[in-house]
Design brief:
The structure is a single chain. The chain is mainly β. Helix content is 0%, strand content 33%.
Length: 51
């Protein structure tokens, strides 16, 4: 996947632990819908994982 295209990222609220997947750069990192705290990026989801 090329950089600059929309990429899925997981964001999480540091206060209540609510998680959500957003696409950047199409969406800004939101405030938590549960408590209003600014959410932080936890993980980039553009790479495959092997188990």
């Amino acid at each position: 996947m090329e950089r600059g295209k929309k990429e899925p990222v997981q964001v999480k609220c540091p206060r209540c632990k609510f998680t959500k997947i957003i696409y950047i750069p199409d969406q800004d990192v939101p405030n938590c819908p549960e408590c209003g705290t600014p959410m932080v990026i936890v993980e980039l989801l553009d790479e495959g994982k092997s188990y």
